[in-house]
Specification:
The protein is of the alpha/beta class. It has helices at about 15-25, 70-80, 100-110, 150-160, 165-170, 185-195, 230-235, 245-255, 270-285, 305-315, 340-350, 355-370, 405-420, and strands at about 5-10, 45-50, 50-55, 85-90, 115-120, 140-145, 175-180, 200-205, 215-220, 220-225, 260-265, 285-295, 325, 375, 375-380, 380-390, 395-400, 430-435. The structure holds guanosine-5'-diphosphate (GDP) (2 copies).
């Protein structure tokens, strides 16, 4: 299920990052620590009640040498393009400013749900100042104090109310995929090559409230949707070159996809920024394909491909399940392999295995390679269940999860992969104590 995206906007110093930290709080979920991937302050997972969402602090995305007005215009634009719900923060310690009005007008035009948070209302004495902000025409202001943690629950309630019910909206038989990578690796070229001429483009859906522009098409009876080609088509906007923005765009595109194509420039090789992109794809738990583009530019001998493959495996160890494809978008070479592969990894990420076969595989695995003592005990696995798909997630009921050594977990994961064929999808194994 897609998590909703919530963005915080507002002029400098109103308390955006304070509120961001309050909302994210202890709930920042760090799935795994991936070397080379630095976690951005501007983007985090959050949850409230049963809803999970992603929170963006647009204040963290800065344009070099820009005026305050240009800065905030860009930030509001990003919020409008990326978010399902926008939190507009103003300061209750000051009256309405020109910049507040400017942002309010931009947001009004967007038709996105907006929560107006009047911050720095630290005690009742300031409470009345929130009424001034009705003049922004955004609706009822909510009094909050980021630094004292007041009113944050009200904002969270409001977010949960306003987030779209994405499950109902999703069309069952459409495979949604995105093409991500640093600038200039060939994402646009690849999109065009995939869409080609023989694909029937079903629709060019201009921004419903949620998505930017997605392209739906059909090939060999399968419906697909390329997520987030908007950023590629509308190239040339000043902020396209802001690195944090391109990272953010990749993150939101990944969130909206079933399958992610991580594109590397085969001619330039792997650079730091690629690791960031790949790490984010992995963490989202989506099916992943590694695409090495511009292979036409590479001087090749019989070992070149293997060398590149080794390097990718070495640099992206955590993506060992992702198939690698070498293509040239420009010369349209091997691009036709991508859709069948997308179909396959999609199917793998949606695979459900039967409980009895699953348990047979795990019994065999333990017979072949029994557990050893770790943390003062030996792990016994009583039985296992697959609890979800996307990614396939298994719960092992055991005598004590503490006894599970990570290398044994790795071993079990490999056994499951051998038995069921989960190419292209991460799988999660959760260990529980049997009550
Ligand atoms: P941003 O630039 O919008 O991200 O604002 P910050 O979160 O960095 O906050 C700007 C300043 O306002 C900092 O000095 C914060 O300590 C202060 N601040 C943030 N929230 C509150 C609040 O609820 N009450 C008061 N009195 N100060 C706050
Ligand atoms: P994006 O920024 O990732 O969307 O990259 P573009 O699709 O705009 O491509 C960047 C540049 O690389 C353009 O000049 C493309 O013509 C070129 N390019 C893209 N794919 C290939 C390829 O497979 N081979 C070669 N030689 N050039 C390519």
């Amino acid at each position: 299920m897609r998590k909703g995206i919530v963005a915080i906007v507002g002029r400098a110093n109103v308390g955006k990052s304070t509120i961001f930290n309050r909302i994210v709080g202890e709930r920042v979920s760090i799935v795994e620590d991936i070397p080379g991937v630095t976690r951005d302050r501007i983007y985090a997972n959050a949850s409230w009640l049963t809803r999970e969402f992603r929170l963006i602090d647009t204040g963290g995305i800065e344009l070099a040498n820009a005026s305050f007005t240009e800065q905030i215009k860009m930030q509001a634009q990003i919020a409008i393009e990326e978010a399902d719900v926008i939190i507009f923060v103003v300061s209750g310690r000051e009256s309405v400013t020109r910049e507040d009005e400017f942002v309010a007008r931009m947001l009004q035009k967007s038709n996105k749900p907006i929560i107006l948070a009047v911050n720095k209302i630290d005690d009742q004495a300031f409470k009345d100042s929130i009424y001034d902000f009705y003049s922004l025409g955004i609706g009822d202001p909510i009094a909050v104090s980021g630094s004292h943690g007041i009113g944050i629950g009200d904002i969270l309630d409001e977010i949960v109310q306003l987030l779209p019910q994405v499950e109902e909206e999703k069309e069952e038989d459409v495979i949604r995929f995105s093409i991500i990578g640093r600038p200039n690796v060939g994402k646009s070229s690849l999109t065009n090559a995939i869409l080609g001429e023989d694909r029937v483009i079903v629709s060019d859906v201009e921004g419903t409230t949620r998505d930017a522009i997605d392209t739906a098409f059909e090939k060999d009876g399968q419906k697909y949707c390329v997520v987030d080609t908007a950023g590629m088509r509308k190239k040339g906007k000043i902020y396209e070159s802001v690195e944090k923005y391109s990272i953010l765009r990749a993150l939101t595109a990944v969130e909206k996809s079933d399958v992610v194509l991580v594109v590397i420039d085969g001619d330039r090789g792997i650079i730091e920024q690629d690791k960031h992109v790949a790490g984010n794809a992995h963490e989202a738990g989506k099916a992943v394909i590694l695409v090495v583009n511009k292979w036409d530019l590479v001087a090749k001998d019989s070992k070149t491909m293997q060398k590149m493959e080794n390097e990718l495996r070495e640099q992206f160890k955590y993506l060992d399940y992702a198939p690698i494809v070498f293509v040239s978008a420009k010369e349209n070479k091997r691009v036709d392999l991508l859709l069948p592969m997308i179909q396959e990894v999609y199917a793998n990420s949606h695979k459900r295995v039967s409980t009895s076969v699953l348990n047979d595989v795990l019994i065999d695995a333990q017979t072949m390679n029994p557990t050893t003592t770790f943390n003062g005990g030996r792990l016994k696995i009583y039985y296992a269940n697959q609890v979800s798909i996307c990614p396939p997630t298994f719960v092992l009921f055991t005598n004590d999860p503490q006894y599970l050594h990570f290398s044994y977990k790795r071993y079990l994961e490999n056994r499951l992969r051998d038995a069921f064929g989960f190419e292209g999808t991460p799988i999660h194994i959760i260990c529980r104590k049997r009550d």
